[in-house]
Structures are given as C-alpha cells and as structure tokens.
Design brief:
The protein is built from four helices and no strands. With 125 residues, the protein is mainly alpha-helical. The protein has one domain. Helix 1 packs antiparallel against helix 2, helix 1 packs antiparallel against helix 4 and helix 2 packs antiparallel against helix 3.
C-alpha cells in the first residue's frame, strides 16, 4: 500500500458508539422484558454487523493512486452488506425462537439514522 496524506475516518469509533447505545437501550429494556431486550439487541446487531463490514471495506484504501482499488472495495463492501443483512434476517426468521418482531425491526431501523449521524460527526472531525 502506498502512503497517502488523506487520513482514514475513524469508522471503528462509529461501530463502537452504535454498540454502546444499543447495549444501553437493551439493558434498559431488559428491566421491563427479557424478550423485548433480546429482540432489540438482535435487530440492532443485524444492522451494525453488515454496516461495520461495509465501513471496513469502503475505507480500506485512500488516495488518488488507489482509486480503482477503493471503488472495487466499496462495491464489494456494499454487496457484502446486503448479503450479510439478508443472511442474518434469514437466520433469525428460521430459528425456532420467539421474537418480538416490532422491537427487532424498530432497533434495526433505529440503528440506521444513528449510524448516519455518528458517521457524519466522525467525518467532520
């Protein structure tokens, strides 16, 4: 890999912030209902894991000389994100476990704007 003066964004921090908020949310929910908390945890992780994969792939390369590698890596990351998301939902739906689907989907959907907000902040600094 060639040296570049462009710093890589702190995308691991984004994932850690998401995990922290998800754990805080599920910890609070667990005081009310264990199934609710577990469903929210799983839903949030279904968004966080594929997004972390995409972020790792998307920011693997930097600089004009590596533009071709960067673009290919972004496509690979997006493809992997879609496949991982579908696979994780498929696994959850095929488990013989009771889920609170409202909590599962709500946590999944909540993680999306959270990820966008935290990423925006990480790219600004």
């Amino acid at each position: 890999m060639t040296k570049t003066t462009i710093p890589k964004p702190k995308m691991l921090k984004v994932t850690m912030y998401q995990l922290a908020i998800l754990l805080l949310l599920t910890g609070t929910l667990s005081l009310e209902d264990r199934l609710l908390a577990l469903s929210a945890l799983v839903g949030g992780m279904i968004q966080i894991i594929p997004q972390a994969w995409f972020s790792w792939q998307a920011f693997k390369y930097a600089g004009a000389r590596q533009m071709g590698l960067a673009v290919r890596s972004m496509y690979r990351g997006e493809f992997g994100k879609v496949v991982l998301t579908a696979a994780l939902f498929a696994v959850v739906f095929n488990l013989e476990t009771q889920w609170n689907y409202i909590a599962l989907f709500a946590a999944f959907l909540l993680m999306i704007p959270l990820q966008l907000f935290v990423t925006k902040r990480a790219l600004e600094h």
